Amino acid sequence: MSSNVLLLQFGKRVRKLRESKGMNISEFAAHTGLSRGHLSELEHGKREPGLFTLQTIASGLDLSISALVRGL
């Protein structure tokens, strides 16, 4: 699987989970402390998340990193 496909799948998952929590991207950015632009690039598969970002997103969604990336 190409990294681009994996990044797109990850981004779609983050967006779906964020929306399931009832947060728009600006609210999630404020909740996690990550910038809106950074999150937008992640959700669109344009940026690869580092370990700190994975942990921040997972925590913001009340998940573990393994639950966040399971099945990708």
Structure description:
- With 72 residues, the protein is mainly α.
- Helix content is 68%, strand content 0%.
- It contains five helices and no strands.
- The mean pLDDT is 96.
What's the topology here?
Elements: H1 3-20, H2 25-32, H3 36-43, H4 51-60, H5 65-69
Q: Structural class from helices and strands?
A: mainly alpha
Biggest sheet, open or closed, and with what strands and sense? none
For the secondary structure, the number of strands is 0
Secondary-structure element order, N to C: HHHHH
Overall average pLDDT: 96
Provide the gyration radius in Å.
11 Å
Residue windows where pLDDT falls under 50 for at least 5 positions? none
Strand percentage: under 5%
Note the main attributes of this structure.
72 residues; mainly alpha
Short description:
The protein has helices spanning 3-20, 25-32, 36-43, 51-60, 65-69. By secondary structure, the chain is mainly α.
